Amino acid sequence: MKYGQLLWLVQAIALSSAFDVEDAAKQYSESDVRGHLEKFQSIAEKGGQPNNNRFMGSKPHEQTLDYIESQLESWGYKAKRESIDTFYCKSNTVSVHIDNKEIKDVSPFWYSPTGTVEGELAIVEGNGVKESDFGSLVKDKIAIFQRGGDSNSVFGSRIDHAQKAGAKGVLIWNNRPGPLRLPGGTLITLSNPDALGHKYVPTAGLTQDADKDLVERIKTGKVRAKIVSKCDDKEVKTENIIAETKKGDGKNALLIGAHTDSVREGPGINDNGSGVAAVLALAKFFKDFKDQKNKVRFAFWTGEEEGLIGAYKYVRALGTTDLEEIKLYFNVDTLGSPNGINTVVTTSGEETNSAGKYQREFYKSQNLANDEQDTSPAIDAWAFQQFGVRVVAIETGFNGEKSEEEAAKFGGTAKEPYDANYHKAGDTIKNVNMDQLAVSVKAVIYTAAKWSESFDGL
Length: 458
Fold this sequence. Notes:
Aminopeptidase; Glucose Oxidase, domain 1; 14-stranded mixed sheet; 23% strand; elongated; metal ion binding; hydrolase; signal
């Protein structure tokens, strides 16, 4: 056999042995994934928490972590539990009076501090997204602006801007019918690594029609407001769980993460029991995967719903060398939305971003469409992005409604939520679209396997 023929044969064998989409499909076990979800559901139902939640630091959340640890150790991993001392707002109440008239349907904001402020109202243009929106107009006044603008500018960042401009307090009125995201928003500034422990000014949300002629009254004369806010802080101990493959180049690491906590309003089986189930399936897969060249780490984050607490704790503790060794962070969150879409999330939100290439490759091979989105402060990937780590994420839609274009592209129902039970008591195992979840988990396995083989092209 000639050298050229031998080289061709070697290359052909190498290509044929490389992990492909069909391999990923074979690795998916619906019984395993469903079993994880059933366990999380059982923990939630027996936990005695309001709305069957698995909130950070609660007994059901601790039991969730115990289960994750036991699964990892059963596959031969050494699971490291990383302790975190933090706090949360156990309850928030707020009342608002404008010109001595009490306003109805006011929404509290978690982490709005205890306090009473009174002052003249000052309208802020531009939805408070930029510091320049505030100028000197709000100094010693209560700033008021409408919800909207850049989706990556979270409430906490806008309140920071108001506070820096000298505002005593902040009112945000809704840009759509109904209360402002009951039970309010959160003022944890996800884009700020020092957010926890940060003190804000008293803040409240108003309905769209709370005071119909308010804007005109402010423009034509002085209008005074009073905000009374109370936050009952509670200290809590919680944990991340970290595990890694025994083999693989530690200087070229793929870090894969999913958050383990739910909101207070429900058990969080889609958000994010589905993501945790996917990462557990991935850990089981990697215990026998022979083509791996790069180190793979699995992270199970606490406190995502309270401001990416676990992810920020982890990334802030890393030195420069440790950060450089993480070639890619892969976030796995909310994979079984009932009216879902296939989403590739990258820093730029563009198809040209190479971090999402294997997800796209998987969807294309299955004749499935995908959308491109950029990262937001609502997912753990944001914490890593702030520290210069390349990130990619997979999700299937959570907060928002499916557009006409998306319905044509993915099927499902336009003008209906991706997940009608998002952050609600109905986020149970019955809420999870198992067909959508199967597609997502296979995409996760394929993506992780390919990056574990090589970071070429990243």
